[in-house]
Amino acid sequence: GGFLGVPDSPCPTPGSLVSRGGRDLALGGPCPGWRRQRGAVRGALARAGGRLGPLLWLQGRELCEELRSHGEAPLDPFEVFTFHTCSTIARLLFGDLVPPPGELRAFSRCLGELLQVWGRSSVRALDLLPLLRALPNPGLRKLLQLVQHRDTFVEAQIQRHQVGRPRELGGSQESGACPSPPPDTVLGALLGRNSGARGGPLSPPRLHMALVDLFIGGTETTAAALGWAVAFLLHRPELQARLRAELEGAQGPPGPGDMGRLPLLQATVSETLRLRPPAPLALPHCALHHTSLGGLPVVPGTVLVPNLLAAQQDPDIWQHPEVFLP
């Protein structure tokens, strides 16, 4: 409980542009609004959890159909994984009001490009020297365009839920009626928070950035893990055969709650994430209280950056730290 916050310093210039002034979960400081936002998102995900099993089954089937449609033609699996991961998150967030595939695919590409542009040295330099904003910067200009595309998409989804469902989906638009959004979707749960909820409803900027966080935090990381798993398994045909036998031997189609009876699949996922974590370093965390780490004292205000890659490939723990051994 001593590392619940993130650094409470002002957001760097590019970070402020991307996060609407630090109003997201990743870059925001441990203020009351940030804590309320975090609690609201956790509660909304819990309420929408019942959708996850059928949704993953449907999305997995669509993913397999798209992969088969390419036949023996070359393809970039990461792009396919990215779109279907983004589509899964969109269905969990928006339910029946998920945007059309073409619009969603364009948004998926926007997120990937936004992260790439944000990581450019010409953009990151603004963190240290904000005065550079006075000079022409194509990277920053591109970042602003991508952020505008992202925000336009997210705002459109929020507006669709606030206006209400269309008549053909069981909604009503008579007499200005505005039916409640589906409560078993993440956005429906967030919009359904009233003044009686703990902390009250989220402000529009925090609601907006909560959705952005769920897209960015889940799309690229999951797609990267899937891509690395495929890359590892390409060199291990015997492991592919064992995984297939385990899945075919399961009683009925496996779901999200069946990982306990699929030990080899669970080990394969864990080993992929051990060797190739979504990021080599975790997000910076700020100590809120006096605590200790590894026997060393940590005072409040200390910023800590966990080195995931070093910890997960520590030769003192793993005999072959750089070898894929599920």
UniProtKB/TrEMBL annotation:
SUPFAM superfamilies: Cytochrome P450. The keyword Transmembrane does not apply. It holds the Pfam family p450. GO terms for biological process: hormone biosynthetic process; progesterone metabolic process; steroid biosynthetic process. Keywords: Heme, Iron, Lipid-binding, Membrane, Metal-binding, Monooxygenase, Oxidoreductase, Steroid-binding, Steroidogenesis. It is a peripheral membrane protein. Its cofactor is heme b. It comes from the Eukaryota. It is an enzyme of class 1 (oxidoreductase). GO terms for cellular component: endoplasmic reticulum membrane. It is found in: Endoplasmic reticulum membrane. GO terms for molecular function: heme binding; iron ion binding; steroid 17-alpha-monooxygenase activity; steroid 21-monooxygenase activity; steroid binding. Its EC number is 1.14.14.16. Its main location: endoplasmic reticulum. The keyword Kinase does not apply. InterPro entries: Cyt_P450, Cyt_P450_E_grp-I, Cyt_P450_sf. Belongs to the cytochrome P450 family. This is Steroid 21-hydroxylase. It comes from Promerops cafer (Cape sugarbird).
